[in-house]
Amino acid sequence: MLNIILDGFPDEYEGYLIRTDFRVGMQISEALNDVDLAKPEKMMTALRLLYGNGIPPDSDVAESGLRWFMAGGNPDEEHIPDGKPPTFDFEQDNRLLYSAFRARYGIDLTREGLHWFAFLAMLGDLGGLLALGYYRHTRHRSRQARRGTAERLRQNARALPDQGEDVRGGSRTHRRIRGTA
């Protein structure tokens, strides 16, 4: 794993120059989560943003570099979005992001240049103390709740009797459905 304090911030991956500004990382994230782009378009857009015209010819190296970059050099975090809505949306949350960085670090993101890895480290440190953290947490919990609701509905559907099945007694809900409660 990369130690940004000892090793500094990288400007290349496997010998290929990369664009490291945090705005590039935000654009890559937006491209990878864009519902209007097909998967190959998402990948090619992200690779062009990261490598410019110097995309590695080996697609495994190129995609590995993309995962590494988006994870801030942390191998435990390396993945490419899978189409699920992100808990953080740079487009939707841009004002909260600006405000949080301004309040917490005194950084004006419209004027400062930050390496993507530094940006991610600072973003991760914002926590739940600011509105940004609250919205990220709420969005994540909302998705978890929807998954839980869907699972409960599937379980309830399995618990309902088949047509013609004798269900004398049964649960209060079943009796209400039958009109015998």
Mind explaining what this structure looks like?
- This protein has a two-stranded antiparallel sheet.
- The protein has 8 helices and 2 strands, in the order αββααααααα.
- It is 54% helix and 2% strand.
- It folds into 2 domains: 4-125, no CATH class; 136-178.
- Helix 2 (22-32) packs across helix 6 and helix 3 packs across helix 4 (59-70).
- The protein is globular, with a radius of gyration of 23 Å.
Descriptive tags:
globular, 2 domains, mainly alpha, single chain, 181 residues
Would you count the extended β strands for me?
2
Quote the average pLDDT: 79
Given helix and strand content, the structural type is mainly alpha
Low-confidence segments: 160-168, 170-178
Spatially, the strands of the biggest sheet line up as 1-2
Give helix and strand order, one letter per element, not per position.
HEEHHHHHHH
Strand content: under 5%
Helix content: 40-55%
Roughly how many Å apart are the termini? 62 Å
Indicate the topology:
Elements (H helix, E strand, L loop, with lengths): L3 H4 L4 E2 L2 E2 L4 H11 L6 H13 L7 H12 L23 H12 L10 H10 L5 H29 L12 H7 L3
Helix pairs in contact: 2-3, 2-6, 3-4
